[in-house]
Amino acid sequence: MRPTNVIQRAASLICLALFPWAVASAADSRATDDPELLLQRIRGRIAAHLSQLQNYTCHVAIDRLLRSTSTSSFDHRDRVELEVAFVGDRELFSRAGETRFEEQPIHEIVPLGMIGNDAFGSHDDDVFSGDAATFKYAGSCKKDGHKSYRYNFRVPQASSRLLVKQNKSADAAVGYQGSFWVDAETLDMVRLEWKTDQILPSVGLSSVEKSMRYKLVRIGNSDFLLPLHSELASFDREGNYRLNTTSLERCLEFTGESVVTYDTRAGGASTHR
Length: 273
Hints:
Distance between the termini: 21 Å
CATH topology: outer membrane lipoprotein receptor (LolB), chain A
Number of helices: 3
Strand order of the largest sheet: 5-4-3-16-15-14-13-12-9-8
CATH class: Mainly Beta
């Protein structure tokens, strides 16, 4: 029986079944001289984007790969295709082609394997809202073709809503740290990466990490900033490496035929990010 790893946030879950630069304005120049002011502007920009996501859906394609300790190459295990909707402050999933979204753990929809429920990057809200994270300005650089500002961040275990789990082990909260890059002109997110801190040995995972690449997408008459491509990776304590590559496609506004229902069943969720 294949092991199942789980990473979950209080509001978003991940199932691992074992993841042309323009001259800056005077205001922009002042912002780079004041990293805290620049960070406030970035957080406001991200909050504005997240507030626009409600009532939109995308098709999600996830390729799941495994590199075991006995080989140096990846084995393509399968491809999972889902529909995802951002409703309120949560992401809901359904099987590909369906128009009914139910509030149920994603691992109940897909086969065993590593799967993430943070398709829209809604966990950005965990990092950029409130005071859980600490930030450090790391300068400007080129990233994914953009002149970018970079910040490093850290969320300690005591403030983290990121939980990890493998098989039937108990959930374990973990701290994590990473970096994000924003376009120096627009302050739109370019990329966000994070990696977990030390995980309890009883969980069975040694590390989990994620990388998301963002792009503006035209949906109807509006532009939305979405992580069109992302990767989720994990190492277990036996040395097996699991990798999910995820793409968002065919994003649309809710139609009159779409139905959202909420599952009121009690119980925790076993999921990974």
